Amino acid sequence: MPLGPTELLIILLIVVLLFGARKLPELARGLGQSAREFRRAISEEEKKPEEAKPEQKQS
């Protein structure tokens, strides 16, 4: 169920009230850095070849 413009406006208003207008740029910057780190970790994980598992000897 997608959020409409009214819901987004209410959420934005609540965020401004909770964190204050001065903290919003800092909060947005932190979220951006976190998202960037997450994407970087995902792409590095995809580039890694699957680690070779040691072969087990059958008795």
Automatic annotation (TrEMBL):
It is a single-pass membrane protein. It comes from the Bacteria. GO terms for cellular component: TAT protein transport complex. Pfam families: TatA_B_E. Signal peptide: none annotated. GO terms for molecular function: protein transmembrane transporter activity. It is found in: Cell membrane. One of its GO terms (biological process) is protein transport by the Tat complex. Keywords: Cell membrane, Membrane, Protein transport, Translocation, Transmembrane, Transmembrane helix, Transport. Belongs to the TatA/E family. NCBIfam families: tatAE. Forms a complex with TatC. Part of the twin-arginine translocation (Tat) system that transports large folded proteins containing a characteristic twin-arginine motif in their signal peptide across membranes. TatA could form the protein-conducting channel of the Tat system. This is Sec-independent protein translocase protein TatA. It comes from Meiothermus luteus. The gene is tatAy.
